Every structure is written in C-alpha cells, then in structure tokens.
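Here is a tokenized protein:
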Amino acid sequence: MIRLPVFEFYAPSTIDEAVALKVEHGVDAMFLAGGTDLLPNMKRRQFEPKVIIGLRNLHELQGISNGVGMTIGAGVTLSQLENHPAIRKNYSALAHAAGLVSTPQLRNSGTIGGNLCLDTRCTYYNQSHSWRKALGFCMKKDGDTCWVALGSQKCLAVSSSDCAPVAVALGAEVRLVGPEGERTIPAKELYRNDGMEYLEKGRDELLVSIQLPDLTGWQTSYWKLRRRGSIDFPILGVAVALRLNEDGTCEEARLVLGAVSSKPLLISEASEMLIGQRINQLLMKQVAEVAAKFAKPLDNTDMALSYRKKITRVYVQRALAEAVGLSATN
C-alpha cells in the first residue's frame, strides 16, 4: 500500500485566511480542493507538501450564478457542473467535458478549479517513486533529464485537463486572489507551454471563480480521445466554439487542442479559416488539416504517435460537425 506522507492540515473559513496561510508556509504548502489529483501525486511523492490548506469551507468558492453570462465557483464539483441545467443548455461543451473526466465517484469530489489547474502528465513522470528512482528521475521532479526528448531544455509533460481547452474556446475568464489583491485574466492566459511551470498563476494565488461570457448565438462542442470510455485522461481534446448568424455564416470561431502540448493550444490559423464562411464538409476537412499541423505528439502519453497525429484530423472534423449540426465524413 502506498501511503500519504505526514503533513499539517488547515481548514480556513475565508479566502483571505487561505491566502494568508499559503503566504506563511510558502513552497511547503499546497491548496486542496477535491484532492483527486493532489492526493495520488502525494502518495507517489510527486508532490511533498508539509502543509495542506483545505478549501471545502470556503463558501465563496461554491455555487453557480447568473448575470452577464455565468459565474462558476472554483469549488463547484464536476458532477454539479455536468448536471446544471443552465450550463447544459448554454455551455454544453463545458458540461460535456466535465462529464468525461474520470469516473462518477471522482467527479463527485473533483472541482472545476482543480481541473483547470490540473498538473501536466507524462509517461515518465506519472509513476511510483520507486519506478522513477530506478530510471534516474526526470526533469519535472528530482532529476535533470527529459526522457521524452533527451536534448530538451524544458519539460514536455502535456496538459491533461478536459475543461481547460473548453474554457479557452468559450472565452472564459478566471478570477485569482493573492497577497497583492485580486485580478481577472482570460483563461487562455492562465497557461504556459512548459510542463513544469505550466500556470501563470502566482505561487500564493488562489483560483476563486470562472466567468463565462454570454454566448447567445454560439454553438460549442468537445471531443476527447482516450483508450477507455472512462477513467483515462485525454490524449487529445478538441474544443470548438462558433458564433453563427441567421444564414449560417460563421462570424467568430475558436478551435482549441488539448493534450498535445503543455498548454491548451488556441489554433488561430484554423479558427480564422471559418470566419465569414458557411461551414460545409470541404471546409471542415481543410480546417482539420491545418489544425492537425499543430498537433505534434511525443512519446509521453498513451497510444502510438502516428495514430494520435492522424486522429487529430478526424476529431477536429467531428467536433466542428457536431457544433454546426452536420455529419462528419473522414
């Protein structure tokens, strides 16, 4: 049995108290929301905090509210998000992505904030401590070598979140609170293309909420590739958001690839091909070809590289077709 390491536990009742505790304990402390990723990583000694700051008592992180768009507390569980009527109706891709994470039991505990900040993954990193020690560890934890590409100067672990590419495609914003106050940034600016330092969030900042814009007139979809129909992390995610006018012409478009890089990739070149066009089978195929050029899979997740490269075209076409209500031909 792999056991958790010893740690101190705090359960603050306010956001300010939680941030103050994080500042006090610095790099020795980590926030705990649902714990579905943090606790297994602690067992494998990928994370070794001496202090855990639990967030379950922070009522400000709970709830989903309407306004201009919708505001989702970072502590809302993935199950709540998946089953919320207004999210399912107005932001169907996000509800669908939340429902594809892991298993029902873990979705009942895991949170949207935790999924957006999910650690990057790699075949050589997500192993037991003894396995990694036998290898000589890796650049992401305890070592200095990227086993995916031996000459790489940076970690190539991939973004493993289902909800992150959707949040970027929807044009969501995230609210962060830290010792210097609070700030709101676009979801696309939350991520760095670096497997180790993959978030633009400050060390002591807490993700408090996600703001979704009013997407009246938009169509959205999310497609996920994984070996099994549940449990597995994505090895490809395709998020699409399209704003169509009455005659079906695309006025705005965002196409985002997940799990092909250390951050969700907004493929501007492919997105721009859709603007001003009525989407048909030929256009979807052309867009998929362009998008696939940005998917450069490496030997750091499941399945063969050649298959993952080819399936990107297929999944982009399927995601576009679902968003506009067409059938996909591959």
Residues 1-59 form a domain with the Uridine Diphospho-n-acetylenolpyruvylglucosamine Reductase; domain 2 fold (CATH 3.30.43.10).
